[in-house]
Amino acid sequence: MLDRALLAAPSGESMMRHAVPRGFPPRAFTLILVLLAAWGMSYSPTFTTAAIASPGLAGSYAPLGFRSGSPDREVTVVLDPGHNGAGASHSAEINRPVPDGRGGTKPCNTTGTATNGGYPEHKFTWDVAIRVRDALTVRGVHVVLTRPNDAGIGPCVNDRAAIANRAGAKAMVSIHADGAPPSGHGFHVAYSDPPLNDSQGPPSRALAETLVETFRAHGFTAANYIGSHGLYPRPDLAGLNLAQIPAALVECANMRNAQEAELVATPDGRARYAAAIADGITAWLNSSAAASGNRRRP
Ligand SMILES: [Zn+2]
Question: Ligand 1: distance of its center to the CA of 35 in Å?
Answer without folding.
Answer: 51
